[in-house]
Design goal:
Layout lengths: L1 H9 L8 E3 L7 E3 L8 H8 L3 E4 L6 H6 L1 H21 L3 E7 L21 H16 L3 E6 L2 E2 L12 H8 L6 E4 L7 E2 H17 L5 E4 L8 H11 L7 E4 L17 H4 L9 H16 L1
Parallel strand pairs: 1-2, 3-4, 4-5, 5-9, 6-8, 7-10
Helix pairs in contact: 1-7, 4-5, 8-10
Length: about 290
């Protein structure tokens, strides 16, 4: 999410944009440890942002389930610290949350639907939302579903990890792929565009704030995604085996579809069809595997 977001925001010439990272800082990224709560306010004081887009999180449900304390420190405590700074400094914050704040039993979910997370990850993100809403009056929460985009490693996303499994399969080996949870894969470039447009809208409409949803509009299981990847990679679809039971590990929502009508009603939307995005997101990473 960070790379396309930084690119989209830097595209607005009147904005001075500072990108941050922890494990992979680069020339245009400042290294920041959000878990270092003692020094986090001082870092924010040093750059004095008018707007913070907070997208960093422990987003792996199984890791969150195994390490709830570490997850809470990053997803809740760091979020609360950022929200407190935003409130004290009259700034504006967009907090990126998740469809996993819902239990997946009664989709689609509107922004008014009471959250009911069923795993540690979803609970931590909901607690992050509460920290923002209770501390920072000038804020927006943007919930998004499973994301995919251009990656440096295929295991960066639960979507592109399917490609790694296909490429690593030898001979006539069959690959088991989840076919239980219904997801709405959403391109990170589209989310970055939506965030940029939200901030531009905020400039024109200072009262803009609240909870919003953005999501791709194609219902797919991982098995459905794998079949599309297989065709692109010339992999025999018959070697894909659907798993029709809930996955092991942290419980997942069956279908946590988000209703994105709120942003569409103010003219903010962009969808890239999944099939159209595949050549773009895989081009560079496949070159490195040849």
């Amino acid at each position: 999410m960070g790379r396309p977001l930084l690119k989209a925001l830097k595209g607005v010439k009147t904005w001075k944009v500072t990108g941050t990272a922890f494990s992979r800082p680069g020339d245009d990224l400042v290294k920041v440890d959000l878990a270092d709560l003692k020094n986090l306010p001082g870092f924010l004081d040093s750059i004095k942002p008018d707007v913070i887009v907070h997208s960093a999180a422990e987003r792996r449900p199984d890791v969150s389930q195994r390490d709830p304390e570490g997850t809470r420190r990053l997803n809740v405590e760091a979020t609360a610290a950022i929200a407190a700074w935003v409130s004290a400094n009259d700034a504006f914050m967009i907090y990126i949350s998740t469809d996993y704040v819902f239990d997946g039993t009664t989709p689609p979910y509107s922004t008014d639907t009471p959250p009911n997370p069923i795993n540690s990850y979803g609970e931590s993100k909901r607690q992050g939302e509460i920290a923002v809403l209770s501390t920072c009056l000038e804020s927006a929460i943007l919930r998004v579903p499973i994301l995919y985009g251009q990656v440096e490693r295929l295991d960066e996303s639960a979507v592109t990890s399917v490609v790694g499994n296909i490429l690593d399969a030898g001979g006539s080996e069959c690959i088991k792929v989840g076919n239980w949870a219904i997801r709405y894969p959403t391109l990170t470039d589209d989310v970055a565009y939506v965030i940029r447009e939200m901030l531009l809208h905020k400039e024109k409409h200072p009262s803009f704030k609240g909870i919003f949803h953005w999501s791709g509009n194609e219902a797919m299981t991982k098995y459905d995604m794998a079949k599309i990847f297989a065709r692109y990679l010339n992999f025999d679809e018959a070697r894909l085996t659907p798993l029709n039971s809930p996955p092991a590990g942290a419980p997942r929502p069956k279908n946590s579809q988000l209703d994105s009508s709120g942003l569409r009603s103010i003219g903010i939307e962009r969808y890239t069809p999944f099939r159209d995005a595949i050549p773009i997101i895989l081009q560079d990473v496949l070159k490195h595997r040849v």
